Amino acid sequence: MHFPKKCSVFKVVLSALLLVALLQLMYLSLLSKLHGKQQRYKYSELFETNSQLKRGIFQHQKNTRKERLKYSLSSGGIFDQSGQYRVYKNIIKSAFTANHEPRDSSDRTQQFALATHTSINNLHHLNELLGRWRNALSVAIFAHAQDVKFSTALIFALSEFCPQVQALVDFHLICHSGEIASFPEQDREQFAGLQDCQDVFRKLEKHRDTFQNYAMGRNVSYPNNLLRNVARAGLDADYTLVIDIDMLPSQNLHDEFLNFLKRRAPRPDEVFVVPAFEIRHTRKIPATKTELLQLYQVGEVRPFYEELCHKCQAPSNYSSWVNLHSPGGADSTEFRVAYTLSWVDPWEPFYIGGRAVPLYDERFRQYGFNRISQACELHVAGYSFSVLSSAFLVHRGFKVSREFHARKDEENRLNRVLFRQFKEGLKLKYQDSTRRC
User: Fold this and answer.
1) Which residue in 5, 6, 193, 374 is deepest, having the highest Cβ count within 10 Å?
2) pLDDT tens digits, 266-278
3) Cα–Cα separations (whole angstroms), residue 129 to 92, 166, 285, 369, 393
4) Mind giving me the DSSP string for 355-402?
5) What sign has the CA pseudo-torsion 96, 99, 102, 106?
């Protein structure tokens, strides 16, 4: 008797459910279209012209970061001292740098920053570096031929899609003097897939095997010391640590070093050595000294360049460093000076130095003597090398000779001749010094 009424109610409920489902499908479809339009606009904002942007569905304000980049590139850069390289400084400035006012007060807070250098095929390491270092960072990039345009586009994409890059990283571009960098307005096909930060790093990761380190071409020399100087000069920091981009600092290195400075005023002729290690590719990079020593004891971590040039790092006195007794206990991360050393040939330590530290000699390129020469000058200039107790650097992968480019030994021989000339020049530059390399 009541069956028709129940059937009618069932139909109403079923119709309502179908209507809800239909509305949900319409909502998802509209959301998908909206996301697609937003991504197309984001791509247009990155790589299309202003006239193309005006035809887009969204009307946003002009991309000021893009305009600053285009303006920086339009200057044509400046030539280095040799006239062989063109340098574009600060083509992208971080929010930290842009908002950073010059500080000349005697009671200002000390600033400590990181400087690094790379070619475009190693820029993917920046992702891991930013996971460990969350403070001001200056990156000098060398690019050649077609990689000049590729580098410019990827630098800009990183600054647009990656919040941490926007906040902390300053970029500088160096190329040969005959090459000119410009903004890649029309690279639609090359960059159409970029939607977020990880997309950009995946793009860089695919580019990593384009060429081997220092093997970019027969007549292409990687100007490592020029890059180091450009990266360092791009920072307004009281203290700077210059590293290779495929190295990671120990956890909290920035904060612990600044805390150390509050407890102990550095001498003007003192730099602070950060011992360097290398780790097997398959191992997780240690964050603390405790973790590092556990891997060191089982042979998964060893001193940097242990196989290639043992004596280049041995003066750091690794055996003393790993056996240090910490007043705060085994897990203490508080920095102190473990011991102070004088430089001996051919030591090439990584160190934290002040503004007055001499620049790197830019005549050294490719492989050999580029960092030894600078450490040698510090010695002649009167500096001492104080080794920090808990700070360290780690390079991913053991350095082995078979992985180096074919001309390594030839370049080393040429730079050895230059190093002899360099040492003679130091005698004239520091005539009052009794120290020699």
Assistant:
1) 374
2) 999 999 999 999 9
3) 18, 15, 11, 25, 11
4) TTSPPPPTT--SSSSHHHHHHHHHHHTT-EEEEESS--EEEES---GG
5) negative
Cα distance between residue 426 and residue 279, in whole Å: 36
The percent of the chain in helix, strand and coil, each rounded to the nearest 5, is 45, 15, 40
d(CA 320, CA 139): 33
Q: Using a CB cutoff of 8 Å and minimum separation of 24, what contacts does 326-333 make?
A: 326/389, 326/390, 330/290, 331/288, 331/290, 332/390, 333/251, 333/252, 333/256, 333/288, 333/289, 333/390
Which residues fall within 8 angstroms of residue 177, CB to CB, at 6 or more apart? 79, 83, 84, 85, 86
Distances from the Cα of 300 to the Cα of 250, 277, 321, angstroms:
17, 10, 17
Length reported for the chain: 437
How far apart, in Å, are the Cα atoms of 45 and each of 148, 152, 158, 167? 20, 15, 14, 20
Give the C-alpha separation, 434 to 292, whole Å: 39
Q: Please tell me whether residue 68 adopts helix, strand or coil conformation.
A: helix
- Per residue in 260-282, is it b (16+ CB within 10 Å) or e — as a string? bbeeeebeeebbbbbbbbbbeee
What three-state secondary structure class fits 78? strand
Give 133-177 pLDDT, tens digit per residue: 999 999 999 999 989 999 999 999 999 999 999 999 999 999 999
Q: Quick count: other Cβ atoms within 10 Å of Cβ 166? A: 19
Concatenating the DSSP letter of every residue in 95-139 gives: HHHHT------TTPPP-EEEEEEEEGGGTTHHHHHHHH--S-EEE
